[in-house]
Amino acid sequence: MRILLAEDAALLRDGLVALLERAGHDVVAAVATATELAAEAAARIPAGAVDLVVTDVRMPPGHGDDGLRAALLIRQEHPTMPIIVLSQYVEQRYASALLGIARDSASTRTTTAVSVATAGLGYLLKDRVSKVHDFLEALEVVHGGGVVVDPLVVNALMSRETSALEMLSSRELEVLELVSRGETNEQISERLHLSRGAVVKHVSAVFDRLGISELDGNRRVLAVIAFLRDQPPER
């Protein structure tokens, strides 16, 4: 298959190119920045010259989540383009942003398929690349429209889902419950006799504790889904 690769670490990038080419794939471009990734994608994908995108999360120019942002933009513009994101660490909010937090179960396989709303996606830790057979298999699964997630990432996401609400304070839970009823910050302020600034602070704390970032979309909706799905024990 024809692969567009983005990885800022030169040694790993060269190693991936060699690995992919030995496996019979064609690396149409290997770039070191998210800016270059976006440019190559814009030029090659519409021409039908790319079958799969593989990108690191943290890349120049910002050395933050630039690679992930580029991947999300590619998916927005080309919804059927298969993408695998590589990460150095288990970063829940990045996996959530890419996968939409739609998951059913985890298994003990080296790469775990998860039911998600959008197919043709993968989120793997870079250590998984050293397991050549599993990595190459993941490429085929994602290219075929499946979803592959590193089991450590799945475990982290599952753990967050079942315990995150227990991390909220009583006041934060109270605020989240009112949010789930559709009340605005102003209404919550009046009901709880809090300043609007205090309500905003509590709502932001809820998002942070639940690991919901601006990348995830409508954070109030996602927080309500978490609240309704996993009611906390009586306090």
TrEMBL record:
Pfam families, alphabetized: GerE, Response_reg
Positions of post-translational 4-aspartylphosphate modification: 56
SMART domains: HTH_LUXR, REC
Sequence ranges assigned to domain Response regulatory in this UniProt record: 2-124
Name of the protein in its database record: DNA-binding NarL/FixJ family response regulator
Gene Ontology molecular-function annotations: DNA binding
InterPro entries reported in the protein's UniProt record: CheY-like_superfamily, NreC/VraR/RcsB-like_REC, Sig_transdc_resp-reg_C-effctor, Sig_transdc_resp-reg_receiver, Tscrpt_reg_LuxR_C, WalR-like
Organism: Brachybacterium fresconis
CDD domains attached to this UniProt entry: LuxR_C_like, REC_NarL-like
HTH luxR-type domain boundaries: 161-230
Superkingdom of the source species: Bacteria
Alphabetical keyword list: DNA-binding, Phosphoprotein, Transcription, Transcription regulation
